[in-house]
C-alpha cells in the first residue's frame, strides 16, 4: 500500500536495555532519525504515534545486577529513569516511554504467548544447552564466555564476540566457562517452546523479497541472506529466573525469550498510552490492527532479523496484527575510528553529554544526522563535531539569521519592512529556494535524513549568499527603500529556516520562532515568501548558536584518552619472559643504591636529566638518564635509587655518564624510577 493511502502511522524506536545509559551510537542509529521522521509527520498534520520504552528483561540486566550485588529490578529502575530523562532533555519526542516490567506489558505478552500456544502455533521440543552444575542452572548465551573461534579473543560471549563482531552460538566457543561460577559447563537437555520459522519461510520470501523491494539495501540484503538459507525453529522461552513466566503448564522456571517479549513492548506501551489518554489517541487496536495504519520500526542493523523476520512471524501467527511497512535500519557509528563498546566504556554517553555541554542538544543532533550511518558505518570525532558547529551552524545558519535580525533592528527597530519591486537578484533567490519543500520531502519520505538536512542548510546558504550580494549596509546610504525589500526577503528566508530545521533542530527552531514572533506554523508553509507580514514586530536579536572553543573539545578528548588508558590497563599482559640466562652473567652486573644529591635538565635535550649521585665511595658520580618527560628534577633530589655501577662510561650530549639508573616501563610507556623500601647507605649492593 502506498504511503498516502494510510490514515495514520505507528512509529517505534528500538527498546534500549535498561542496564546502562544511551550513547551516540544508539542516537545516530535509531532515536534521532526516528524523532526527525515523527516531527516531520506532525508538521504535516498527520496522525502519528511515537512509541518507546526500556527493555527490562534478558541477561544483560541480570549480569549488571550480579556485578553490582543488587536485584535486576533495582538495575531497571535506575537506568529506566536515566534513559527516560536523557531522552526527554535531548528532545526525543516520544508520546510514551514506558517499560517491559509494567503490568500492562506483563499481561499482554503473556496473553500473546498463550494464544499462540493454544492455537498450536508453537512447537514443544527438547534441545541441548549448557548447564552450570555448581550454580544449578541452565546458562543463557551471555552467561557463557570462551575463546572466539574466529579472532581467538579469550573473552567472547556465547552469542557474540565484541572484538571481531562475529555472531556466535555457545557451542562454537573454545574452552567455554560459566560467568556465574567460573566452572566448565556441561551439556544437558531442556524443554522449550519454539516458533517454527521454517513453516513461514515461503510467506516471508513473498512478503519481503517480492513485496518490499523498496527497503534499504542493507535491510533487504540481510533478510535475503537469511531467507536464502533454511530457517530453523527458534526457541521463544528460556531457562532463567528473570523475565515474564511462561504461562503454560509444565513451564516452571522458564521465562519468555527476551526477543519474544521485547517487541510486544511496542504494543503494550501503545495500549498503556491509549488507556491513559483515550480522548487523544483512541483505542490502541487501531494503531496495531487497522490495515490503514502504517507501521515503521527504527532500529540498528544488529536488530534486523528480529524486526523483519521473527516479530513479523509472531504477528502473522497471531492473526490480526498489521505488519511493518518499513524498517529503516542504520549501520553502526564508530567513535574516533574505533568501534563503540559499552563493555570498554568507549562511547559518548548521552547523560554525560547533556551535563558537559548543556544547551547543545541541537549541535549533537545536527552532527549525528550529518554523519548518519544510513548506508554504511560512519565515524564520529570531536574535531568534526567542533568543525561542523563552528563552520556550519555558527558561520552559515546562525550568521545569516543574526545578520538579517540585526540589520532589521538597526534600520527599522525590529519591524518587518514591506517588500517593494523585485530585482533580478531577488527573483534568483526566490527561484533557488522555491523547491525546498519538494526536495526535502523527497528525502524525508524515504528516510534519507542526512540529505534532507543538507537541503535545510542549503536554504541558509542561499540566504547568506543573497544578503552578501545585496549588501544592504551599503545600499542604505543611497536607497533605503531598496533595503526594505532586501530585508523582507531575508526575513522570509529566516522564517522558512525555522520550519525546515524543526524536525532536525527543535530547540534552535523554537528559539528562532520566538526571535521572529512566529507562534506556529506547519509544513505546508515551507517555501512561502510571505510568512512574516510587513509591520510584524520581531523580538530582540540573539545568537542562535555559539562557537565551540578548543578547550571544550579537549576535555572530551581527554576523557576518551583516560578511558583508553584504563582499558589498556585492564587488559594489560606483561611481555614474555626472556630465555634463561646463566647466573654468572647476572653476577657480572654491579647494582648499587645511589642517593641523588642534585638533578638538572640537560641543555638542548628534551629527554635527558643529569644526576649527581652519592655512590658511597666518597666521590660523586655523574649519570645521565632519559626520563625528563616523566620527572621534574626537583621531584628526584633527595631520593635513593638503584643504578648499575660497572657499565663502561658513555658520552651523552657531551657529558660523561658513569652508569645507568634503573626504571620500570609501564604498559603505556610511562617510566618509573626504581627505589627501595628501607633507608640504606649509598653504595649498598643489590643481591
TrEMBL record:
Instruction: Identify the residues that bind ATP.
Output: 342
Cofactor mode of binding and number, as noted: Binds 1 zinc ion per subunit.
- PROSITE patterns attached here? AA_TRNA_LIGASE_I (PS00178), TRBD (PS50886)
Q: Where does Zn(2+) bind?
A: 148, 151, 161, 164
As annotated in the record, motif 'HIGH' region runs over 16-26
Which species is this record about? Answer: Prevotella herbatica
Q: SUPFAM superfamilies attached here?
A: Anticodon-binding domain of a subclass of class I aminoacyl-tRNA synthetases, Methionyl-tRNA synthetase (MetRS), Zn-domain, Nucleic acid-binding proteins, Nucleotidylyl transferase
Compartments (UniProt record)? Cytoplasm
Instruction: List, alphabetically, the Pfam families matched.
Output: Anticodon_3, tRNA-synt_1g, tRNA_bind
Which residue intervals define the domain TRNA-binding in the entry?
585-687
Q: Which reaction does it catalyse?
A: tRNA(Met) + L-methionine + ATP = L-methionyl-tRNA(Met) + AMP + diphosphate
State how it assembles: Homodimer.
- rRNA-binding among the record's keywords? no
Instruction: Give the protein's function.
Output: Is required not only for elongation of protein synthesis but also for the initiation of all mRNA translation through initiator tRNA(fMet) aminoacylation.
Q: What is this protein called?
A: Methionine--tRNA ligase
* GO molecular function terms attached to this record: ligase activity
Kindly give the HAMAP family that the UniProt entry links to this protein: Met_tRNA_synth_type1
Record gene name? metG
Question: What keywords tag this UniProt record?
Answer: Aminoacyl-tRNA synthetase, ATP-binding, Cytoplasm, Ligase, Metal-binding, Nucleotide-binding, Protein biosynthesis, RNA-binding, tRNA-binding, Zinc
What EC identifiers does the entry list? Answer: 6.1.1.10
Q: Matching PANTHER family, A to Z?
A: METHIONINE--TRNA LIGASE (PTHR45765), METHIONINE--TRNA LIGASE, CYTOPLASMIC (PTHR45765:SF1)
The record, for InterPro entries, names: aa-tRNA-synth_I_CS, Anticodon_Met, Met-tRNA-synth_bsu_C, Met-tRNA_ligase_1, Met-tRNA_synth, Methionyl/Leucyl_tRNA_Synth, MetRS_core, MetRS_Zn
Q: Which cofactor does it need?
A: Zn(2+)
Motif window: 'KMSKS' region: 339-343
